[in-house]
Amino acid sequence: xxxxxxxxxxxxxxxxxxxxxxxxxxxxxxxxxxxxxxxxxxxxxxxxxxxxxxxxxxxxxxxxxxxxxxxxxxxxxxxxxxxxxxxxxxxxxxxxxxxxxxxxxxxxxxxxxxxxxxxxxxxxxxxxxxxxxxxxxxxxxxxxxxxxxxxxxxxxxxxxxxxxxxxxxxxxxxxxxxxxxxxxxxxxxxxxxxxxxxx
Length: 199
What we know:
Elements: H1 2-47, H2 57-64, H3 74-104, E1 114-119, E2 122-127, H4 130-145, H5 149-169, H6 178-182
Antiparallel strand pairs: 1-2
């Protein structure tokens, strides 16, 4: 009888030992998975730093037009969206000014679709589609020779069309009077472009 009892006790102890080893292994696996998840989360969060969440050039444009980077928090995206209208307007104003400066000098260049924009929170490199960049630059060129109200209306219409596309794509409110600000009516006191809300 004793050998049977001893055998049962040995089997019981063996089962308990195997169960303890199994549980220890499961706990270790869970700990590793938790550490991996925390590390992955930290890496994702570190990628979205700064006033524009680390986004610049076409990645910033893509995020503003609906192609949000994987893992980007919705609240963080909303913060960037709230700051972006100033970047967009400043980019447009700078592109237009480049065209008008070239027009005054009798030059015609090839505008780039990236541009550094200054904000109160620092610089960001903005990107706009080339077609609209060309149209805004050309409006700047043409504005130099628009000496009559009729000519100005044509240039403003081209500028508005290009700008409205950009604001529609980003689902942002088109600022009323932007083209009049950039192309003041003939005989009206000229205004310096660039009067916009800081991001």
